[in-house]
Write a structure and sequence with these properties.
It contains no helices and eleven strands. It is mainly β and 180 residues long. It has an eleven-stranded antiparallel β-sheet with strand order 1-2-3-4-5-6-7-8-9-10-11, with no helix packed on it. A hairpin with a 7-residue loop joins β6 (93-102) and β7.
């Protein structure tokens, strides 16, 4: 189980904050050499995320964030500190760069670097492509997705494929409601 919920509050067009909650209960089945099946817990608990977004001009945003800041002492929910930059051109294409620093998994901090582009088709259909690199694990990932958004609701479906290491594919979905 990996359940998440979040809220965001815009103080103005230039400043907004976000807070998210996450409950994780990850286990895997282990078959012993004697043929017995046991469950092994990887992580179980509640953690939170927080972010601050500042847009000094309408086309440019800066964000700072803390992910999993309630430490569950698990590499499956690492404590991450980071920031991002985003630039929107002609209200239809957005370029973004992200950096996350993993301060809980390794003896020294690990850096995750990513970037992506989003095209907003007909002002309602976002289409995205992204790339990420985890410096400690030496993992490269490629992601893509599409969705629908209007002034009231939004939903997204995306896929992420790990390009190095083990073959890991993730399919993710999101649903958003914008209260007014």
């Amino acid at each position: 189980i990996d359940g998440r919920a979040g809220l965001a509050f815009p103080f103005s067009d230039q400043v907004s904050i976000g807070l998210g909650g996450r409950y994780l209960n990850l286990e895997y089945d282990n078959v012993t050499s004697a043929g017995r099946q046991t469950e092994t817990g990887l992580v179980d608990g509640f953690t939170m995320d927080a972010s601050l977004r500042i847009a000094p001009v309408p086309a440019f945003s800066i964000a700072v964030l803390a992910v999993n800041f309630i430490d569950l002492d698990s590499s499956y929910a690492p404590v991450l500190l980071g920031g991002s930059l985003a630039y929107t051109a002609a209200s239809i294409v957005t370029f973004g760069l992200d950096t996350l620093v993993d301060i809980s998994t390794f003896n020294t901090a690990g850096v995750n670097i990513g970037g992506g582009v989003e095209f907003l088709i007909a002002n309602i259909a976002p289409v995205r492509l992204g790339y990420a690199f985890d410096t400690k694990r030496e993992l490269h990932s490629l992601s893509g997705g599409a969705g629908y958004t209007d002034r009231s609701v939004g939903f997204d479906l995306s896929i992420q494929q790990q390009l190095s290491g083990e073959n890991d594919t993730r399919v993710m979905g999101a649903l958003r409601y914008y209260a007014r």
